[in-house]
């Protein structure tokens, strides 16, 4: 299993001299499974670059959406495989998201907001909201889900393959002022022992209380969750658009100091565009090996 980050920013794209190191594109993560399946988590602006990497393949593409806020969908009209004749692209989401919005990814392609209409695409695009776990399992993509604490809702995913695991929990507020969809203890249980946890860590204490209820977690809360859930490697994700490279460098230094004498997580990283993480098992089995490529 190889995880590659193509967009790590939250809320809005933020290109420029202060975001060169970690990147300014919004949420898009690619998982290449050992069985050959391509899984794309969200379709933010980072998806454009990923599309060029997938053009050489002809296999179906599986897109799994956490939710459909702008920063998670804007890259789809610029995703090169949608212009490949007969390329199969399946978009998986929740019933509420797909049926209420008539599949937001495709609705952008209306000839007005984007010059190409969806019915003009040569590729085969399908939105799937029912029996998602069963359909994906039939393709060798094994997931479990939890509802996010986020305005408008959303879904977190945990992926497993050959005893290895990765969780994608973006746009999640661990201690919101509104009604909880998933409690902190439920998150600890859902994420317990996961090899790689990719979690929303958009805010610092200085952002509060003004942004309490906006649907994102404090960095300090995510650190504690990684400890309580005995996570292997923590990847902080969905960086605030105003968070500069130098500020993220400082957060990484703080992470290293915070976890130095902790058993878990073994590693902590601030997500950056182009970052690649490989999960593998030894021939004899045993613990999962996590490598930064």
Could you list some keywords that capture this structure?
293 residues, alpha/beta, Metallo-beta-lactamase, Chain A, eight-stranded mixed sheet, six-stranded mixed sheet, 14 strands, 20% helix
Task: Characterise the protein shown here.
The protein is α/β, with parallel strands linked by helices. It has a single domain (2-292), classed as 4-Layer Sandwich (Metallo-beta-lactamase, Chain A). The protein has helices spanning 47-54, 95-101, 104-107, 132-138, 184-191, 219-228, 245-259; strands at residues 2-7, 28-32, 38-41, 61-64, 88-92, 124-128, 142-147, 155-161, 164-169, 196-200, 233-237, 267-270, 276-281, 288-292. The strands form 2 sheets. The chain has an 8-stranded mixed sheet. A 6-stranded mixed sheet has the order 7-8-9-10-11-12. Strand 8 and strand 9 (164-169) form a beta hairpin. The longest helix is centred in the last third of the chain and has 15 residues, at 245-259.
CATH topology: Metallo-beta-lactamase, Chain A
Shape: globular
Specify the CATH homologous superfamily: Ribonuclease Z/Hydroxyacylglutathione hydrolase-like
Q: In angstroms, what separates the terminal alpha carbons?
A: 12 Å
Proportion of residues in helical segments: 10-25%
Quote the beta fraction. Answer: 15-25%
Please report the number of helical segments: 7
Number of β-strand runs: 14
Mean pLDDT: 94
**Major beta sheet, specifics?**
8 strands, mixed
Structural class determined from secondary elements: alpha/beta
Overall number of structural domains: 1
Helix-strand topology string: EEEHEEHHEHEEEHEHEHEEE
Radius of gyration: 18 Å
CATH 2nd-level architecture: 4-Layer Sandwich
* Residue windows where pLDDT falls under 50 for at least 5 positions: none
């Amino acid at each position: 299993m190889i995880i590659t980050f193509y967009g790590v920013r939250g809320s809005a794209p933020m290109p420029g001299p202060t975001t060169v190191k970690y990147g300014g594109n919004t949420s898009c993560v690619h998982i290449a499974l050992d069985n050959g399946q391509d899984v794309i988590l969200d379709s933010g602006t980072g998806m454009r670059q990923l599309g060029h990497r997938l053009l050489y393949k002809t296999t179906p593409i599986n897109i799994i959406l956490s939710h459909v806020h702008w920063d998670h969908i804007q890259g789809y009209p610029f995703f090169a495989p949608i212009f490949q004749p007969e390329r199969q692209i399946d978009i998986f989401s929740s019933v509420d998201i797909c049926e209420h919005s008539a599949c937001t990814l495709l609705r952008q392609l209306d000839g007005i907001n984007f010059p190409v209409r969806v019915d003009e695409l040569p590729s085969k695009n399908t939105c799937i909201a029912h029996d998602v776990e069963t359909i994906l399992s039939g393709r060798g993509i094994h997931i479990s889900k939890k509802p996010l604490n986020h305005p408008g809702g959303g879904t977190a995913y945990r992926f497993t393959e050959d005893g290895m695991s990765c969780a994608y929990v973006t746009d999640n507020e661990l201690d919101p002022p509104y009604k909880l969809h998933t409690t902190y203890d439920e998150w600890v249980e859902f994420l317990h022992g996961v090899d790689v946890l990719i979690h929303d860590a958009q805010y610092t204490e200085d952002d509060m209380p003004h942004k309490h209820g906006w649907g994102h977690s404090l960095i300090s809360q995510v650190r504690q969750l990684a400890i309580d859930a005995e996570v292997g490697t923590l990847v902080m994700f969905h960086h605030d658009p105003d968070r500069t490279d130098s500020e993220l460098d400082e957060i990484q230094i703080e992470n290293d100091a915070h976890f130095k004498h902790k058993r878990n997580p073994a590693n902590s990283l601030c997500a950056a565009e182009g970052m690649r993480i490989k999960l593998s098992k030894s021939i004899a089995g045993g613990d999962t090996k996590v490598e930064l490529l």
